[in-house]
Automatic annotation (TrEMBL):
Keywords: Methyltransferase, Porphyrin biosynthesis, S-adenosyl-L-methionine, Transferase. GO terms for biological process: methylation; siroheme biosynthetic process. Belongs to the precorrin methyltransferase family. It comes from the Bacteria. CDD domains: SUMT. This is uroporphyrinogen-III C-methyltransferase. Its EC number is 2.1.1.107. The keyword Methyltransferase applies. Residues 9-221 form the Tetrapyrrole methylase domain.
């Protein structure tokens, strides 16, 4: 690859899991990259789209274990860009939706590095859709609240969520990265007066061939998730829209576009 005189960083949203859900612009930028820093939830198929000579660096984070701390990831982005490289920071979902892309963008700006943020399809919307759950519906919910299930205080983590306030808000609530916190926040919502029979679902590895969907109620979702061994990555969706899952799942379970094209060609 020809090295440019001035480095540049693309902060790319890889989408919710299905490699075909990356944007055209995101894929084009990924293919141009000389260095790729990628997260744990990025589909392996996307890395195969990179140039064969591109340097691939895993910087993924798992619950209770980070391969690199955030400031170390920022430093790598700056390092390779200052070497004149085209750098792709490939992140699951959207870079600015609980992806810490905003922190990386600020670090690049402070370092005087040129960059572009390429939005991705957030799992907060795509994963419920893949399970037959529209996050809004005129008859069920006219508002959508997206929160993180990581509640650690202090340091560089997000502040604790006021679950009691969310329970009174209504509409649809989507909780990302909240498998371990599921018993705690559902209990807090119940204690705040939310109807125990409010439909709820937890979806593991959404939009992929390994997707698992558990539909229950606010009162029972935590216990059922434990009994069925639901693990990360998964998101929780709470609200009346979940009641549509059984009706609309049959639509989302149709053959993929690729399958349809293959069947027409045969």
């Amino acid at each position: 690859m020809v090295q440019s005189e001035t480095g540049h960083v693309f902060l790319i949203g890889a989408g919710p899991g299905d490699p075909e859900l990356i944007t055209v612009k995101g894929l084009r930028s990924l293919r141009a990259a000389e260095v790729i820093l990628y997260d744990r939830l990025v589909a392996p198929e996307l890395l195969e789209e990179a140039h064969p000579s591109a340097l691939r660096i895993f910087v993924g984070k798992q619950p209770q274990h980070h391969t690199l701390k955030q400031h170390e990831i920022n430093a790598l982005l700056i390092k390779y860009a200052r070497e004149g490289k085209i750098v792709a920071r490939l992140k699951g979902g959207d870079p600015y939706v609980f992806g810490r892309g905003g922190e990386e963008a600020l670090a690049l700006r402070e370092a005087g590095i040129s960059f572009e943020v390429i939005p991705g399809i957030t799992s907060a919307i795509a994963v419920p859709t893949a399970a037959g759950i529209p996050v809004t519906h005129r008859d069920y919910a006219s508002s959508l609240t997206i929160v993180t299930g990581h509640e650690a205080r202090g340091g560089d983590e997000a502040p604790a969520i006021n679950w009691e306030a969310l329970a009174k808000l209504g509409g649809t609530i989507v909780v990302l990265m909240g498998v371990r916190a599921l018993p705690r926040f559902t209990q807090q919502m119940l204690e705040a007066g939310m109807n125990p029979q409010t439909p709820a679902a937890i979806i593991q590895e959404g939009t992929t061939s390994r997707q698992r969907t558990l539909v229950a109620t606010l009162e029972s979702i935590a216990l059922q998730a434990l009994e069925q061994d639901i693990t990360s990555p998964a998101l929780t969706i709470i609200g009346e829209v979940v009641s549509l899952a059984h009706e609309l799942h049959a639509i989302t379970a149709l053959p993929s576009v690729q399958d349809l094209l293959l069947s027409r060609a045969s």
